[in-house]
Amino acid sequence: MRHEKAGRLLELARMLAGTSEGLTLDDMAERLGVGRRTAERMRDAVRDVFPQLEEVDDPPTRRFRIPAGLDGLFQAPTAEELAALAAAGEVFAQQGASARAGALRSLEQKVMSATRAAARRKLAPDLEALLQAETIAVQAGPRPFEDEAVLSAVRAALLSMRALRFRYEGGATPGRVREVTPYGVLFGRANYLVAAEGDGGPRNWRLDRVHDVEVIGRPASRPEGFSLQDYADESFGIYQDDTEDVVLRILPASAEGALRWRFHANQRLEPQADGSVVVRFRASGMRELAWHLFTWGDQVQVLGPARLKALLIEQIEIARRAHTSGTVVAGA
For the whole model, what pTM was predicted? Predict the structure, then answer.
Protein backbone atom coordinates (compact mmCIF):
# COMPACT_ATOMS: atom_id res chain seq x y z
CA MET A 1 0.00 0.00 0.00
CA ARG A 2 2.88 2.38 0.81
CA HIS A 3 4.33 1.75 -2.66
CA GLU A 4 0.92 2.41 -4.23
CA LYS A 5 0.59 5.72 -2.39
CA ALA A 6 4.09 6.75 -3.44
CA GLY A 7 3.21 5.94 -7.04
CA ARG A 8 0.08 8.07 -6.85
CA LEU A 9 2.04 11.01 -5.44
CA LEU A 10 4.61 10.70 -8.21
CA GLU A 11 1.76 10.59 -10.73
CA LEU A 12 0.40 13.85 -9.31
CA ALA A 13 3.88 15.42 -9.36
CA ARG A 14 4.21 14.54 -13.04
CA MET A 15 0.83 16.12 -13.74
CA LEU A 16 1.87 19.31 -11.95
CA ALA A 17 5.19 19.40 -13.81
CA GLY A 18 3.49 18.81 -17.15
CA THR A 19 1.21 21.87 -17.10
CA SER A 20 2.13 25.50 -17.69
CA GLU A 21 -1.19 26.91 -16.46
CA GLY A 22 -1.33 24.78 -13.32
CA LEU A 23 -4.07 22.55 -11.90
CA THR A 24 -6.79 23.41 -9.42
CA LEU A 25 -7.67 21.04 -6.59
CA ASP A 26 -10.77 20.05 -8.54
CA ASP A 27 -8.59 19.27 -11.58
CA MET A 28 -6.35 17.06 -9.45
CA ALA A 29 -9.30 15.26 -7.88
CA GLU A 30 -10.88 14.58 -11.28
CA ARG A 31 -7.70 13.30 -12.92
CA LEU A 32 -6.78 11.08 -9.99
CA GLY A 33 -10.34 9.88 -9.33
CA VAL A 34 -10.31 10.95 -5.67
CA GLY A 35 -12.22 13.38 -3.48
CA ARG A 36 -11.22 17.01 -3.07
CA ARG A 37 -9.96 16.50 0.49
CA THR A 38 -7.77 13.60 -0.64
CA ALA A 39 -6.43 15.72 -3.51
CA GLU A 40 -5.59 18.46 -1.00
CA ARG A 41 -3.65 16.03 1.21
CA MET A 42 -1.81 14.65 -1.81
CA ARG A 43 -0.89 18.16 -2.93
CA ASP A 44 0.56 18.88 0.51
CA ALA A 45 2.56 15.65 0.38
CA VAL A 46 3.93 16.57 -3.06
CA ARG A 47 4.93 19.97 -1.71
CA ASP A 48 6.99 18.28 1.03
CA VAL A 49 8.98 16.37 -1.62
CA PHE A 50 9.03 19.12 -4.26
CA PRO A 51 9.28 22.47 -2.44
CA GLN A 52 9.44 24.23 -5.83
CA LEU A 53 5.66 23.66 -6.14
CA GLU A 54 4.14 27.10 -6.65
CA GLU A 55 0.68 28.63 -6.44
CA VAL A 56 -0.78 30.69 -9.26
CA ASP A 57 -3.55 33.15 -8.50
CA ASP A 58 -6.52 32.58 -10.78
CA PRO A 59 -9.54 34.09 -9.00
CA PRO A 60 -11.78 32.68 -7.74
CA THR A 61 -9.55 29.57 -7.61
CA ARG A 62 -5.88 28.80 -7.11
CA ARG A 63 -3.73 26.73 -9.41
CA PHE A 64 -0.61 24.75 -8.62
CA ARG A 65 2.34 23.69 -10.77
CA ILE A 66 5.97 22.59 -10.63
CA PRO A 67 7.44 25.13 -13.06
CA ALA A 68 10.92 23.69 -13.65
CA GLY A 69 9.76 20.14 -14.32
CA LEU A 70 11.06 17.01 -12.62
CA ASP A 71 14.54 15.59 -12.50
CA GLY A 72 15.17 12.69 -14.90
CA LEU A 73 15.36 10.38 -11.87
CA PHE A 74 11.59 10.66 -11.51
CA GLN A 75 10.84 10.48 -15.23
CA ALA A 76 12.37 7.19 -16.39
CA PRO A 77 9.93 5.40 -18.73
CA THR A 78 8.79 1.83 -18.14
CA ALA A 79 9.19 -1.04 -20.59
CA GLU A 80 5.40 -1.12 -20.98
CA GLU A 81 5.28 2.59 -21.89
CA LEU A 82 8.06 2.25 -24.47
CA ALA A 83 6.47 -0.87 -25.96
CA ALA A 84 3.14 0.96 -26.26
CA LEU A 85 4.90 3.88 -27.98
CA ALA A 86 6.60 1.53 -30.44
CA ALA A 87 3.32 -0.29 -31.08
CA ALA A 88 1.50 2.99 -31.79
CA GLY A 89 4.19 3.92 -34.31
CA GLU A 90 3.84 0.51 -35.96
CA VAL A 91 0.06 0.94 -36.23
CA PHE A 92 0.53 4.27 -37.96
CA ALA A 93 3.12 2.79 -40.30
CA GLN A 94 0.83 -0.09 -41.27
CA GLN A 95 -1.98 2.37 -41.94
CA GLY A 96 0.21 4.39 -44.27
CA ALA A 97 0.42 7.29 -41.79
CA SER A 98 4.14 7.76 -42.42
CA ALA A 99 4.33 11.31 -41.03
CA ARG A 100 2.83 10.38 -37.67
CA ALA A 101 4.77 7.10 -37.55
CA GLY A 102 7.98 9.08 -38.06
CA ALA A 103 7.00 11.53 -35.33
CA LEU A 104 6.49 8.71 -32.82
CA ARG A 105 9.78 7.04 -33.75
CA SER A 106 11.53 10.39 -33.25
CA LEU A 107 9.81 10.79 -29.88
CA GLU A 108 10.89 7.26 -28.90
CA GLN A 109 14.51 8.10 -29.71
CA LYS A 110 14.33 11.33 -27.70
CA VAL A 111 12.86 9.53 -24.69
CA MET A 112 15.59 6.88 -24.82
CA SER A 113 18.36 9.44 -25.24
CA ALA A 114 17.04 11.40 -22.23
CA THR A 115 16.92 8.26 -20.09
CA ARG A 116 19.91 7.58 -17.88
CA ALA A 117 22.26 4.86 -19.06
CA ALA A 118 21.65 2.68 -16.00
CA ALA A 119 17.88 2.88 -16.55
CA ARG A 120 18.29 2.01 -20.26
CA ARG A 121 20.32 -1.06 -19.41
CA LYS A 122 17.67 -2.16 -16.92
CA LEU A 123 14.87 -1.57 -19.43
CA ALA A 124 16.48 -3.31 -22.38
CA PRO A 125 15.69 -6.99 -21.58
CA ASP A 126 12.04 -6.38 -20.66
CA LEU A 127 11.50 -4.06 -23.62
CA GLU A 128 12.99 -6.57 -26.06
CA ALA A 129 10.82 -9.34 -24.60
CA LEU A 130 7.65 -7.27 -24.93
CA LEU A 131 8.44 -6.21 -28.51
CA GLN A 132 8.94 -9.87 -29.49
CA ALA A 133 5.83 -11.06 -27.64
CA GLU A 134 3.37 -8.42 -28.90
CA THR A 135 2.47 -7.45 -32.45
CA ILE A 136 -0.30 -5.70 -34.33
CA ALA A 137 -2.83 -7.74 -36.29
CA VAL A 138 -3.21 -6.27 -39.77
CA GLN A 139 -6.82 -5.38 -40.54
CA ALA A 140 -8.29 -5.04 -44.01
CA GLY A 141 -9.14 -1.51 -45.04
CA PRO A 142 -7.89 1.50 -46.97
CA ARG A 143 -4.46 2.95 -46.33
CA PRO A 144 -5.10 6.65 -45.74
CA PHE A 145 -3.02 9.13 -47.69
CA GLU A 146 -0.58 11.05 -45.52
CA ASP A 147 1.86 13.42 -47.17
CA GLU A 148 4.19 15.12 -44.71
CA ALA A 149 4.41 18.31 -46.81
CA VAL A 150 0.62 18.65 -46.96
CA LEU A 151 0.22 18.00 -43.23
CA SER A 152 3.00 20.45 -42.39
CA ALA A 153 1.31 23.20 -44.43
CA VAL A 154 -2.07 22.51 -42.82
CA ARG A 155 -0.59 22.56 -39.33
CA ALA A 156 1.33 25.75 -40.07
CA ALA A 157 -1.89 27.44 -41.18
CA LEU A 158 -3.73 26.25 -38.07
CA LEU A 159 -0.99 27.45 -35.72
CA SER A 160 -0.54 30.81 -37.42
CA MET A 161 -4.30 31.25 -38.01
CA ARG A 162 -3.77 31.88 -41.72
CA ALA A 163 -5.72 30.78 -44.79
CA LEU A 164 -4.75 27.90 -47.04
CA ARG A 165 -4.70 27.87 -50.82
CA PHE A 166 -4.55 24.63 -52.82
CA ARG A 167 -5.64 22.93 -56.01
CA TYR A 168 -8.39 20.42 -55.26
CA GLU A 169 -8.79 17.40 -57.52
CA GLY A 170 -12.23 16.52 -56.25
CA GLY A 171 -15.76 17.83 -56.02
CA ALA A 172 -17.84 19.06 -58.94
CA THR A 173 -14.97 21.02 -60.52
CA PRO A 174 -11.72 19.03 -60.21
CA GLY A 175 -8.55 21.10 -60.52
CA ARG A 176 -10.10 24.28 -59.17
CA VAL A 177 -7.92 26.42 -56.86
CA ARG A 178 -9.50 26.84 -53.43
CA GLU A 179 -8.85 29.33 -50.64
CA VAL A 180 -10.13 28.14 -47.28
CA THR A 181 -10.12 28.78 -43.55
CA PRO A 182 -8.75 25.62 -41.90
CA TYR A 183 -10.59 24.25 -38.85
CA GLY A 184 -8.64 21.04 -38.25
CA VAL A 185 -7.81 17.56 -39.54
CA LEU A 186 -9.81 14.34 -39.20
CA PHE A 187 -7.72 11.18 -39.25
CA GLY A 188 -9.47 7.93 -40.14
CA ARG A 189 -9.83 5.42 -42.96
CA ALA A 190 -9.19 8.47 -45.12
CA ASN A 191 -7.75 11.75 -43.88
CA TYR A 192 -9.67 14.99 -44.30
CA LEU A 193 -9.03 18.68 -43.88
CA VAL A 194 -12.01 20.36 -42.22
CA ALA A 195 -12.22 23.87 -43.64
CA ALA A 196 -14.64 26.54 -44.77
CA GLU A 197 -14.57 28.23 -48.16
CA GLY A 198 -15.81 31.81 -48.34
CA ASP A 199 -18.84 32.37 -46.13
CA GLY A 200 -19.81 28.69 -46.10
CA GLY A 201 -19.74 26.32 -43.19
CA PRO A 202 -17.13 23.66 -42.52
CA ARG A 203 -16.84 20.79 -44.98
CA ASN A 204 -14.44 17.89 -45.50
CA TRP A 205 -11.65 17.99 -48.09
CA ARG A 206 -9.81 14.72 -48.77
CA LEU A 207 -6.11 15.27 -48.24
CA ASP A 208 -5.14 12.91 -51.06
CA ARG A 209 -6.88 15.30 -53.45
CA VAL A 210 -5.12 18.41 -52.13
CA HIS A 211 -2.20 19.60 -54.29
CA ASP A 212 0.10 22.64 -54.47
CA VAL A 213 -0.88 23.66 -50.94
CA GLU A 214 0.44 26.90 -49.47
CA VAL A 215 -0.18 29.09 -46.44
CA ILE A 216 -1.16 32.60 -47.48
CA GLY A 217 -1.08 35.88 -45.60
CA ARG A 218 -4.81 36.31 -45.04
CA PRO A 219 -5.75 35.94 -41.35
CA ALA A 220 -8.16 33.06 -40.92
CA SER A 221 -9.32 31.39 -37.71
CA ARG A 222 -12.17 29.03 -36.99
CA PRO A 223 -15.22 30.51 -35.25
CA GLU A 224 -15.09 30.90 -31.51
CA GLY A 225 -16.78 27.97 -29.83
CA PHE A 226 -16.25 25.57 -32.73
CA SER A 227 -15.29 22.09 -31.51
CA LEU A 228 -13.65 19.72 -33.96
CA GLN A 229 -14.60 16.80 -31.72
CA ASP A 230 -18.26 17.83 -31.67
CA TYR A 231 -18.18 18.24 -35.45
CA ALA A 232 -16.72 14.75 -35.86
CA ASP A 233 -19.25 13.28 -33.41
CA GLU A 234 -22.14 14.50 -35.57
CA SER A 235 -21.40 11.89 -38.22
CA PHE A 236 -20.98 8.14 -38.44
CA GLY A 237 -17.43 7.97 -39.76
CA ILE A 238 -16.50 10.87 -42.00
CA TYR A 239 -19.47 11.65 -44.22
CA GLN A 240 -21.55 14.67 -43.23
CA ASP A 241 -25.16 15.09 -44.33
CA ASP A 242 -28.50 15.48 -42.55
CA THR A 243 -28.36 14.51 -38.89
CA GLU A 244 -30.93 11.89 -37.92
CA ASP A 245 -31.99 9.81 -34.92
CA VAL A 246 -30.72 6.25 -35.39
CA VAL A 247 -32.30 3.28 -33.58
CA LEU A 248 -30.85 -0.21 -34.04
CA ARG A 249 -31.88 -3.53 -32.48
CA ILE A 250 -29.15 -6.11 -32.00
CA LEU A 251 -30.56 -9.62 -31.64
CA PRO A 252 -29.92 -11.64 -28.46
CA ALA A 253 -27.25 -13.85 -30.05
CA SER A 254 -25.01 -10.79 -30.60
CA ALA A 255 -26.12 -8.70 -27.62
CA GLU A 256 -22.96 -9.34 -25.62
CA GLY A 257 -20.81 -8.08 -28.47
CA ALA A 258 -23.06 -5.04 -28.94
CA LEU A 259 -22.60 -4.03 -25.31
CA ARG A 260 -18.85 -3.80 -25.94
CA TRP A 261 -19.20 -2.15 -29.37
CA ARG A 262 -18.92 1.54 -30.07
CA PHE A 263 -21.29 2.55 -32.84
CA HIS A 264 -21.09 6.25 -32.03
CA ALA A 265 -19.50 8.58 -29.50
CA ASN A 266 -22.90 9.56 -28.08
CA GLN A 267 -24.64 6.19 -28.22
CA ARG A 268 -27.10 4.91 -25.61
CA LEU A 269 -27.42 1.17 -25.04
CA GLU A 270 -30.71 -0.27 -23.76
CA PRO A 271 -30.75 -4.00 -22.87
CA GLN A 272 -34.19 -5.49 -23.51
CA ALA A 273 -36.16 -8.14 -21.62
CA ASP A 274 -35.84 -10.60 -24.53
CA GLY A 275 -32.03 -10.39 -24.43
CA SER A 276 -31.64 -8.02 -27.37
CA VAL A 277 -30.03 -4.59 -27.17
CA VAL A 278 -31.42 -1.35 -28.59
CA VAL A 279 -28.78 1.18 -29.65
CA ARG A 280 -29.71 4.86 -30.01
CA PHE A 281 -27.61 7.77 -31.25
CA ARG A 282 -27.94 10.88 -33.38
CA ALA A 283 -25.65 11.20 -36.39
CA SER A 284 -25.26 11.95 -40.07
CA GLY A 285 -23.55 9.73 -42.64
CA MET A 286 -26.29 7.16 -43.22
CA ARG A 287 -24.60 5.58 -46.24
CA GLU A 288 -21.40 4.82 -44.33
CA LEU A 289 -23.49 3.48 -41.45
CA ALA A 290 -25.34 1.20 -43.88
CA TRP A 291 -21.99 -0.15 -45.11
CA HIS A 292 -20.97 -0.86 -41.53
CA LEU A 293 -24.22 -2.64 -40.71
CA PHE A 294 -23.38 -5.19 -43.42
CA THR A 295 -20.79 -6.59 -40.99
CA TRP A 296 -23.54 -7.48 -38.50
CA GLY A 297 -25.32 -9.74 -41.01
CA ASP A 298 -28.74 -10.86 -39.81
CA GLN A 299 -28.03 -9.80 -36.21
CA VAL A 300 -29.14 -6.19 -36.62
CA GLN A 301 -32.50 -4.63 -37.39
CA VAL A 302 -32.85 -0.98 -38.37
CA LEU A 303 -35.75 0.53 -36.43
CA GLY A 304 -35.08 4.03 -37.68
CA PRO A 305 -34.70 6.22 -39.58
CA ALA A 306 -36.52 5.03 -42.69
CA ARG A 307 -33.79 6.46 -44.92
CA LEU A 308 -31.15 4.27 -43.30
CA LYS A 309 -33.32 1.18 -43.76
CA ALA A 310 -33.88 2.08 -47.42
CA LEU A 311 -30.13 2.64 -47.97
CA LEU A 312 -29.30 -0.71 -46.38
CA ILE A 313 -31.85 -2.52 -48.55
CA GLU A 314 -30.48 -0.68 -51.60
CA GLN A 315 -26.91 -1.76 -50.81
CA ILE A 316 -28.03 -5.34 -50.22
CA GLU A 317 -29.78 -5.34 -53.61
CA ILE A 318 -26.68 -3.94 -55.33
CA ALA A 319 -24.58 -6.71 -53.78
CA ARG A 320 -27.16 -9.34 -54.75
CA ARG A 321 -27.21 -8.19 -58.38
CA ALA A 322 -23.42 -8.17 -58.53
CA HIS A 323 -23.29 -11.80 -57.43
CA THR A 324 -26.26 -13.16 -59.42
CA SER A 325 -25.70 -11.44 -62.77
CA GLY A 326 -24.27 -14.55 -64.36
CA THR A 327 -20.91 -12.94 -65.05
CA VAL A 328 -18.12 -15.52 -65.18
CA VAL A 329 -14.89 -14.47 -63.54
CA ALA A 330 -11.75 -15.37 -65.50
CA GLY A 331 -9.94 -18.32 -63.97
CA ALA A 332 -12.92 -19.38 -61.86
Answer: 0.59
